[in-house]
Amino acid sequence: MCGIYLTNIPYEEGIIKEKLESISFRGPDYTGIQKVNDLTFGHLRLSILDLDPRSHQPMSYENLTLVFNGEIYNYQTVKKELKNLGYLFKTESDTEVLLIGYKHWGKGVLDKINGMFAFSIYDTLTNKLFSARDRLGVKPFYYYWHKGQLELCSQIRPLLKDKKINDEAISIYLDTDFIPSPYTIAENVFKLPPGNYMEIDFTINKLTIDEYWNLKKVKIQDISYEDAKKELHNLLKDAVKIRLQSDVPIGSFLSGGIDSSLVSSIAANVSTTKINTFSIGFDDPKFDESKIAEQFAKIIDSNHTTTICRPNDIMELIPKLTEVYDEPFGDSSALPSLLLNKVTKQYVTVALSGDGGDESFIGYGHFDSLVQNRKIMDIPYKLRKFIANSGMLKLFGLNTHRINNALNTKTRNDFIENIFSRKGFLLKEKRQNWMKYYQGYKTWSDVFLQKAADLNIKLWLENDSNVKVDRASMAYSVEVRSPFLDYRVIEYARTLPMHYKYEKGRQKKILRDILKEYIPEDVFNQPKRGFTVPIGNWMRKELREEFDLALNDDFLNRVPNLNVKKFKCLYDDHMSGKEDHRVYIWKLFVLSKWYKEFQF
């Protein structure tokens, strides 16, 4: 887990060092800078495998030079295959395996490796650069390409100087809580999409991007539930086991949820030593899962650490939030994620997490909502619109966001998309063209819930969940590994009958039944609270002054395409306790901090 940087812009070495220093938290163990022809490579190392200096980067092999961020979990298997082909190795790192693997297979190495990664390899013989990002977008990859000038990095901060703000990206952010790939906050700066590789021929200044992996339409397996459960369990065991490879201390995040509990249980079972587990709690019982997590920890016999998150902790973390989330990011669960990693770093450098389980096994609350309100979509659209505008919903106490969504959308695909987009609620003009990059979900499955899950994987997972985890962990130089993001698990889950995953409101059915082998069902079968903070109440009380100062007229009037009048109304309604608009208020608050940090 590291930070990578590369450019052909002739910066002085001092400027390169400044750029790397601005994201030094990604790799505090070693900073490497190397010039090869017209390219300057930079690397920030967080040492996990083969701690010896021989594995520092940039790393070269014959005519190739590499910078790499991430982990190749099956590197030992790939290394064995390359040894059988006659290759010799000088290190015990996965970096060298990736480099030599590319030497032998070229872009075919992407089909060989299982991991989280973003890397660039330059070939001095061809004057070409090959870059790639992992299948699920766990590791970030930003690049600037304009008139033959290239600059790429693990984070956008080093690329922002002298760039203009992307007004369209601001509108997308206001429409969601994030800026999805390939967009970024800056003009001419892009994200390489997951499962894609990029090739640049510097001789002719040509850049091409192609896809090597994506979700696809699959045939649902004709398999018994017990056999499916056994196969999935074995797959998860292997996904956990290969993620326990480390030359530094390793632990596991443990909340009161199914996913992290299952990952931690399997880790405790296959590990040769007692594992360390970590959780975050809150004073407000509506948000707190720490007591449940402590029960789990006793059952699996882990060394457990609980940290309580309070308003003062949030105030202290807000500067850190804008430092490491260097694009506007509106998911408030980034705050407890930062605190969790801050505590975890005191004990271990690597931690397992349960991220990705909700997407593949139908765990989010909005999946329930889709099922509950889907039948509304059978009512003719004009009649639905009449009901929505008649005031009948308020009269019968049914005026919820989800029901309004079902009444006001023309198609079931619109119904699914509205989970992630608020259709320009805060905008003067609606902007929906960005969804064109995520239309594949419509054809990958004929099953309604699987369509929603696929969009979750392609849109939310990469741009929200993975961003949150990467930045929060890197802020404290912690590497987080997520077994549910093993592409084999993602692919296998999509072949299972839907009722194995979701049945009569029982979310993650098959995961729950696997977890019963480790933890009694009456212990883990409790309401899901999610990894959220009571930010809505805090902004009315302890943090009120901070929000009033940040969300002033000067800032609001500078935000492109923002409906200022509408925002002020919902701000007043929230602060008076009439409505709950914490999501909208928080995202504008984060944006204000971003403007101030980057002086826009």
Automatic annotation (TrEMBL):
Its EC number is 6.3.5.4. The record marks 355 as: Important for beta-aspartyl-AMP intermediate formation. GO terms for biological process: asparagine biosynthetic process. GO terms for molecular function: asparagine synthase (glutamine-hydrolyzing) activity; ATP binding. It comes from the Bacteria. L-glutamine binds at residue 94. InterPro entries: Asn_synth_AEB (IPR006426), Asn_synthase (IPR001962), ASN_synthetase/amidase (IPR051786), AsnB_N (IPR033738), GATase_2_dom (IPR017932), Ntn_hydrolases_N (IPR029055), Rossmann-like_a/b/a_fold (IPR014729). It is an enzyme of class 6 (ligase). The active site is at residue 2. ATP binds at residues 280, 353-354. Belongs to the asparagine synthetase family. This is asparagine synthase (glutamine-hydrolyzing). It catalyses: L-aspartate + L-glutamine + ATP + H2O = L-asparagine + L-glutamate + AMP + diphosphate + H(+). Residues 2-203 form the Glutamine amidotransferase type-2 domain. Pathway: Amino-acid biosynthesis; L-asparagine biosynthesis; L-asparagine from L-aspartate (L-Gln route): step 1/1. Keywords: Amino-acid biosynthesis, Asparagine biosynthesis, ATP-binding, Glutamine amidotransferase, Nucleotide-binding. It holds the Pfam family Asn_synthase. CDD domains: Asn_synthase_B_C, AsnB. GO terms for cellular component: cytosol. It comes from Winogradskyella pacifica. PROSITE patterns: GATASE_TYPE_2.
